[in-house]
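Blackboard transcription, Thursday session:
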Amino acid sequence: MLRWGAPESFDEYVRNRHSELLRFAHVLSGDPHLAADLVQDALERTGLRWGRLRNQDDPEAYVRRVIVNGFVSNWRRLRREYVVSDLPEHPGPATEPPDDEVERLLAMLPRQQRVVLVLRFYGDMTEAAIAELLGCSVGTVKSNSSRAIAKLRTALTPSTVEGSR
Amino acid sequence: MNVEERLREAMRGPGYALPGWPDATTRIRAGIAARRRRRAGATALALATVAVVTVPAFVFAAGPGRPPVPRPGSSATAARTAAPTTAPTPGQVIPWLERPAPAATPSSESSPVPCEGPVLSAAASAGPAGAADASRTVVTLTNLGDVACALPKAELSSAGTAITTRLDESLGVKAALAVEPGEAVQLQITMSTNCGGTPAIYSDVWLWSKIPVTGLTLRASCPVLLSPWYAPDAADPSDLAALTALRAYLDVPSSVGRSDDLVYVVTLANPTDRSIDLSNCPVFDQRLGSDGGRFLLNCPFNVLPPGSWVR
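(Written on the board underneath:)
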């Protein structure tokens, strides 16, 4: 779902890809505000390195990696946040909420397991590609994936699963 | 629908879609600009710990006879346009020129094979003048082969007998560890008859007992001094040795405002009573936190007169 297109300027890239990246970060984090922060952070870092990244085969892999790392790490807790009297931006139009039960169960998973599921089922990435992106072994990806699926399978009762049909 | 299918459907459904930013490029550009400002501020702060070490032998330390060093001014950042001159103007600030130093040649990284055999030729020629009781000869070793070779420590012999030598480390040359194909390295031999007794004379001298050195006759009563191998364009070893007498001083402001440029001044002084040739401009190492590199010093003049200094 996340594909690198024709060579673009950084501004074009931001305009064309930020919505998709926001969605990716939202699936990853389950939090639209955190998703916006993750994408903002990733695109800023990308912009600083655009001269080098644009010549790579798949620069978007770098963006995804920054988003994933930002989510997995505790950067947001460590980051200094300011309380302001005015909201910096207005909320966008309401969208249909995600599948509540799936989102609730995903939120209960360890972050690493959630990341693996998102990259696998949303990003359509192979286990090897996920391992490379996360900097871990394929075995770790497999074990995280199987454990997460097992938890979800247990939590999503047969009737629930069938009921969603 | 199994768990995997439900996950895929939920993740790709409209529930996770977020509205795009109407001002996406503006907000990202603003964030990048803020990062650059923060980075510049951090860099300026890190500069307070900058360590500038000239190579091979510049020493940054205050000491007796340190020349007066005024506070840095904006002129230090002005562009250099003047052509090289032979000597500096007193008090003149030479704008810094951050130019990466050329890689040292020959390099040891591509030369695992020891230098030996018929692909090497060695010839001697008269070296620079020295003390009255000492003479200098320069041996040029040329690699006529197709591959680089590593240079072991020079060993001289004559008629199968090793000649006693000592490494002359006072010359200050950067040792060449290898010689590239088609290139040459040099070695300076210093002989002295000041040790009494009858000087020994060697006329058939070989390197590593494998390479004849044409035109070399040794005549010495003292142990023969051998400099390290050095690239011939490195400069006269005696001139490089003179560089070790230079003193360099770093003048850094105690603080700098965020996003402001940190301007520091390096003063290079010649405390000796003889002029120092800077036509072969030295290099220096600069470290800023974990970043750094080796750069060529800015030498817009060729000679630093005795007792003078430049900034």
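Lecturer's comment: The first helix of chain A runs from residue 10 to 29.
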